[in-house]
Amino acid sequence: MAKEFNESTNSVRVELNRLTEAGLLKTEEEGRIKVYKANEQHPFFSEISNMVSKFLGLDELMEKIVRRMGPVQKAYIIGDYAMGLDSGEIEILLIGKDLDIQYLDFLKNKTYEKLQRKVKVTIQDSDPGESTGIMIFGN
């Protein structure tokens, strides 16, 4: 985790201990290794689990977009969701030419199915400072 978050092992250990003290995590000893697990009995477990699922679902969505839409140069989450506000709509800005527009309908339906959020996609053919070609797709 320390490498993943670019933090010191001590910082990670301190935060894991805080989460354990708060009852959000449980620990088990496996030899010399301390294993942390989510405390499924914690009153906020289901809400935290839903938030993580939504975040990971969004992460997965962005990966699929980049892989399946064609030559995506850049992909951004913009609007309310990017500012940490959940308005029920996810706005995405894609930059690239010759993207697979037909895939968007499938993508929007799948996203709503998985995350219960509408998706609005704006496509630009190059970086904002360089482009005039903009297409907007929404529900």
UniProtKB/TrEMBL annotation:
InterPro entries: ArsR-like_HTH, WH_DNA-bd_sf. GO terms for biological process: regulation of DNA-templated transcription. CDD domains: HTH_ARSR (cd00090). This is ArsR family transcriptional regulator.
